[in-house]
Amino acid sequence: MTSGTPAGPPLWRQAFDAAEKRVTPHAESLVRTPGFATGVALVRRVQNLAKDTARGVSARAWHLVNLPAGTDVARLRAQVGALDREVRRLTVQLENERRRPRPADVPREEHDADGAQSPGGPRPRPARRGAQRPPRA
Amino acid sequence: MERNALRARNGIKLVAGVDRPGVGLTPKDVVWERGRTQLWHYRSDKVRYSPPLLIVFSLVSRSYILDLTPGNSFVEQLLDAGFDVYLVDWGEPDERDAQNRLEDYVDDYVPAAVERVRELSGADEVNLFGYCFGGDLSLLYAAHHPDAPLRSLTVLATPVDFTKMGPMADVFRGGLEVDDVVDEDGNVPPRVVVQGFKTLTPTAEVTRYVTLWERLWNDEYVSAYQAMTGWSDDHIPFPGAAARETVQMLVRDNAMVTDRLTVGGDPVHLSDIRLPFLTVRAERDHIVPPEATAPLIDLVGSEDKHELRLDAGHMGLVVGRTAARTTVPEIIGFLRKRSDEVGED
Lengths: 137, 345
Prior knowledge:
CATH class of chain B: Alpha Beta
Oligomer: heterodimer
Number of domains of chain A: 2
CATH architecture of chain B: 3-Layer(aba) Sandwich
Number of domains of chain B: 1
């Protein structure tokens, strides 16, 4: 039972490795075929269709008794989310504005060009120090 | 018999989820936060280099992979090398983040983090470091803000050619829409992200369990398995609007390569990046294949640019022996050359 050489993997593992070596390339090429991508999209659409139909039925039932359905709550959550994002962006932009050099430190036209912005408008740039450094010698 | 007893003991521990190794343990402070996003500053009394290093993490996974376990931590090695390390962690997005677009990260959060780092450190500039999709955010930030106060930019496993990203990108070119996969909170749920990654190597899941069974007696292996698979199964939701933009701009238009990038409506060109630049790619990366990262070196406009190719997998770039022996020392070498010793005039 004793041997001078280290034991190799057990037989079952060798068998598994041999099978895996044969199967893996086929499985990997399968998931890279256009058919697989289309299949995934199709399955997902069917799942969503079934889910949406069920949701529609339950929403109508809740609305019949004048109660909000899950879809109404989801819509509200999305609206709160959008509002939260706007507030967050304004806060961050305000912070960045505050960290910028004061008007006396920057040329007049640059200061005027960077007034308060709405979150939907063009983004104000961060406080700047200078152009990106050229490579060091 | 003894191995079978150890297998039984470790198997029970795994199933019960007890005795998990602690992850992300390097001491740190939250120095800025907005929404779910936090800026962490790792504590260190060994800072020898300036400017500080700011790590921008990916949007779909947990940042503790960079600080996995004591002794196997990318962050720990950077601190030991004398860098002052900060990390932007995006937290766990919920319905309040569903409308977040890429410009939120590129034009608001990253600039705010950069400014906070400068404020705290007193440095004029920062060395920016992007990991995986965080590398894409860093590229967009550096390209959209050519006058940003950056000393250098390093990106790790950062995809630019999304036609080479494999099945996960192919399904979105094959007719799948982001709206087909978003959850009720408006975000792409973590299970979809995990499934997407698992599709890349369809047999890996089976091999993983077979190897686990074979080595279940080995405490060290089980501990590493728990930490690694814990991370790879533990993703975070991808904000819906950012996911739509990613799919349209980066996947379908392949805009990084075709130079059709826009951020907040502005055209953005990677060739505007003129900083000292390092891109690190892993030759055995199944998540971000090397072909997807390969064009990057030619797309940036820097004169001082370098590419490091390593014989490693995606996680092997930052975790394990290859990382400790090759990736991290190379990155440290690159950053040291672009840093000043503290106290040096």
